[in-house]
Design a protein that fits this description.
Elements lengths: L1 H17 L19 E5 L2 E8 L6 E5 L5 E3 L2 E5 L4 E11 L2 E11 L10 H7 L8 E5 L7 E5 L14 E2 L14 E4 L5 E5 L3 E4 L11 E2 L5 E4 L6 E8 L2 E6 L13 E7 L3 E7 L6 E9 L27 E2 L4 E6 L11 E6 L9 E4 L11 E7 L4 E8 L8 E7 L5 E7 L10 E5 L9 E10 L7 E2 L9 E3 L3 E6 L11 E6 L7 E5 L11 E7 L4 E8 L7 E8 L6 E6 L10 E5 L10 E9 L1
Antiparallel strand pairs: 1-2, 2-5, 3-4, 3-6, 6-7, 8-11, 8-20, 9-10, 9-20, 11-12, 12-16, 13-15, 14-15, 16-17, 17-18, 18-19, 19-20, 21-24, 22-23, 23-30, 24-29, 25-28, 25-30, 26-27, 26-29, 31-41, 32-35, 33-34, 34-41, 35-40, 36-39, 36-41, 37-38, 37-40
Length: 599
Amino acid sequence: MKNIIRTFLLGTIVCLWGCQEENFDLGPIPGVEEAVFSVAEDTQGANYIVFTNSSVGFLKKWDFGNGSSAEGDVVTAYYPFKGNYTVTVTVFTKGGSVTSTQQVSIATTDPEICNVEILQLLTGGCDALEGKTWVIDADRSGHFGLGPGTAGVGGATFTPDWYKAGANEKTGGGLYNDEYTFFLNESRFVQETNGDVYLNGGQAGNFPGSEESPVGDYIAPFTAAEIINYSLSESDGNQFISFNNNGFIGYATGVNTYQILSITEDEMFIRFRDEVNTDFAWYHRLIRKGYVPPPPPGPSTTKFPVDFETEVPPFNGFGGSTYEVIENPDASGANTSAKVGQYIKGFDGNWAGIETKLDAKLDFSTNTLIEYKVWSPVAGRALFKLESQDGSATPVEVFVDVATTNQWEVLTFDFSGAASDTYDKIAMFLDFDNNNGGTFYFDDIRQTAPPLASVSIDFEASDPGFAPFGGNVYNYVDNPDASGINMSAKVGESVHGHESWAGMSTDLAGPIDFSSSSTFKMKVRGPATGVIKFKIESTADSNVNIEVDVNSTKTDEWEELSFDFSGAASGTYDRIVVFFNFGTTDNTEVFHFDDIVLQ
């Protein structure tokens, strides 16, 4: 390098002090005789041919007709396969250039080429006349990844530590419809893009028509060159494959050389750099076209409850998230179990989470809550999402707040409105509103029933908020007759609608507990006697209900009515519905009610 710099400076000084106008003689145009070359068999064997051009040209460029080329006066070409090859040499002189060709016939295929293992695995070998086609292993997570560019230095391994794509995560991005075919003969490579490719943002300017992809980064129209060749090389025990004519594999990052980390008959794992950001190393897992990988070990679905102690549930990370089962890093407080799930959130926005398919559809008829334990480094919102594996049902999403950091907390998600026997897939998201990544731990995912509720509604502390229907009107009012059995300050008011089923309802905090009592009492004051209907329902299914009718006997004064629900099951009913002067229509009678108690 010092000699090059010294020569450059010396040439500059000479020009500064001695440059003057000169007339240059380019010399005569070369004749065809300058491009004549000889052909001879090399001592290595009949598949090695030596070409010689002895002209005075300062540069000789050779095309051997087998996908390879060279420069020089005397060059050697390797022809592993039987056949006829057209060899071209271009000779450059001061006066221009001249080209000539000859045909070379190779009588037999070199048997040694068929025994090179990496070529057999990559191309299918000598018998694979149609070559061997590889595709991205889209159906399995980890087929596309990112790690540090310095991997392999100082004992580090070649692994995508920063990001692993989930199964089919990049669908629609121009990556999964590409095919890569390797031919042993002529070291030929066919890159079939089907019209578009997936590329890194740093390469967008190099691909005309590029635009942002719906799955991140960029997509661009692209058709690969018709003639592309590959070459294999080795350095420090590592194997590399390179392409000419802008050939590349998968995600375009501006490079044409790939390290082959591993290769088998059916799978190939490669690593490649980023031309713009040299701190990045990208990864692809490819499989032989038509190959169906075996299912991963362990269960293919998850069974509730999930506790991580006896098996590894098959959660899948997406949006850059990763999942694995590890030793509990903080076996204290609400969770002292040995094993937990680790969820490292990706950086692909809010929707970076984990998911798993369930072994059965969830039943919400009784157990309407889903809860799990979480250890979070930050406060924020957690999302729990229900889906159907076949995509036929509209997903259901429930958010709760994570209030505790750096210790275990139990999160409870209320799915009381979700349909039973519909959802068989779940997805979980933590720190939903932020894109900061982070490591979270979770455990003990299970369905539970809401805590049983005793009922005592007295209107004093707050308005219980009855919902009217059938034309009815509900008001939260001062007691119009604080006397007799009801001296309270606040009561509920019902203004009768114009339908037989005009009434009002309120949902309870949980299912009614009938274990110690089955009789509801309610104080009523109305302008007329008649049927007071008291009804209990399930909010999950209003067809699950029990009705009890009692006649009021007093007018314009408070009386206490009792409604007997003997035989009602605990944990089923969580809504109260009342009807005053049931069955009457076309009236606007005003009733007041108070102190609804199960006792």
